[in-house]
Amino acid sequence: MNLSLAAATIKRLNYWLSEQQSVVEFQWSPIMWGSTWSFLIISISTYIITSATLHLLLLLFIGRRRPIPLGPIPVLHSLAMSLISATIFLGILSSAAAEIRDTRWIWQRSKTPFQWLLCFPIGTRPSGRVFFWSYVFYLSRFLHIFRTFFTILRRRSLSFFQLFNHSILICMSFLWLEFSQSFQVIAILLMTLVFTLVYGYRFWIEIGFRRARFPFVMNCHLIFLGCNLACHIGVLLLHFYKGGCNGMGAWFFNSVLNSFVLLIFLRSYVKTYNLIRENYFHVAASSISQVGDFLTSQTSNKLAVPRGEPKI
């Protein structure tokens, strides 16, 4: 009885994730919300200008030492982002399996399923199950940026890395859809898995539980960036040795942006670990109220002891 109930639940979940009409018949088009270049440019510019303006106004009129209480909003945001990321992960995993099942006969002589995940055939259009969840991921990036405003309101800190990273994620997810870019399935799977863990961890510590005795968020992102780099190399090899991959112009642009993110992150990672080794017991005992933007706290406040992990 329990097995049949579980099977029925999985079947129904799979239907909603990859078989319902709105998912199967999805098509990326200029009439959809957020699908134009002007929207992309205006939204990213507005995000950066609003963040910088809010930061400066708060410093000017309130100062650094008076955080604005936000109540349960950051907690609910972390919980919502963890659940949304988990849903996107399951959705694109189920949809990729369905797409491989339905279209493998077209490319099975030239590609394996893993190669298809990395390298879309030339001529792939942004339609169908996978691109539906790619669009949902793109929309979720606009919820993700609210964390910047939480940091500004609670800690008066604003880092270039946070602004750059969030803006790049919005830009990259737009390009995935606009150019049917290869590699996006693996990238979304990796990122949503990381975001599920990171936001779940943030929710855990926001409600009062003990935080990890190591930089959990940084380590999750380090693993992600390592896997991301390996997959980028795989896409490049498949493009030159397996007949070409779709959307390689956008892929190259994304690779350049990812390289900047990787370099900035590795710099902060090494710096954080050096300071953690020097002040291990203080960091391990820090409460959630002390968890701030590490890079900003080091460069702006000139503190001798790190107060947490960089916001990503």
UniProtKB/TrEMBL annotation:
GO terms for molecular function: fatty acid elongase activity. One of its GO terms (cellular component) is endoplasmic reticulum membrane. The chain crosses the membrane at residues 37-63, 75-98, 130-146, 158-177, 183-204, 216-238, 250-270. The keyword Membrane applies. The keyword Membrane applies. It comes from the Eukaryota. It is a multi-pass membrane protein. It is found in: Membrane. One of its GO terms (biological process) is sphingolipid biosynthetic process. Its main location: membrane. Keywords: Fatty acid biosynthesis, Fatty acid metabolism, Lipid biosynthesis, Lipid metabolism, Membrane, Transferase, Transmembrane, Transmembrane helix. This is Elongation of fatty acids protein 3-like protein. The gene is HOS3_1.
